[in-house]
Amino acid sequence: NAGVMQNPRHLVRRRGQEARLRCSPMKGHSHVYWYRQLPEEGLKFMVYLQKENIIDESGMPKERFSAEFPKEGPSILRIQQVVRGDSAAYFCASSPLIQGRGTEAFFGQGTRLTVV
Amino acid sequence: SQQGEEDPQALSIQEGENATMNCSYKTSINNLQWYRQNSGRGLVHLILIRSNEREKHSGRLRVTLDTSKKSSSLLITASRAADTASYFCATDTEYGNKLVFGAGTILRVKS
Hints:
Chain A is mainly beta. In chain A, 0% of the residues lie in helices and 48% in strands. Chain A contains no helices and eleven strands. By secondary structure, chain B is an all-beta fold.
């Protein structure tokens, strides 16, 4: 059972370009979370998705950022018209559905986005 | 500010010594988790403690939780150079496992 797979591991974009980050959750996991980590900081929650649904996007910037988790295929975090401040490590996590209480989230290795 | 806040921010010890890291949070929680992150890598789950538990062990790790003080501690016994990493606590306050992370403690174990 492969872990959470993120690609690419490293992504360089020029200001104004689009960045697409992909995340394939662990087999059997139907919940996907995206987090952003700035240098020397902890992870900040961005968005929580289930298949074809955005459950909580309270951590997503209002503009330029979007996320999806289609019925088939990986979850995608999309950043349009990137700016230098978007440079960060973006982590995806997945977890199975456990009724009532939280459970362990499994993290991918992250995508390190550098905007030049 | 962050729900979880760790202290100290940085800790440097000799191999074989014990390392203790603390985490405080503000709101009520369902559970609290500790993660390790090696430089430039992803997060590795260490241990999860539920709100109705007070102490949990896993190998050289011991986690305590005091919900009255809204705090947790992570103890690593007999530390090794390979334990050098950043350690984060994360709290889960809602159904669906949305985690709120602290800023982390950087642990350096010198051999």
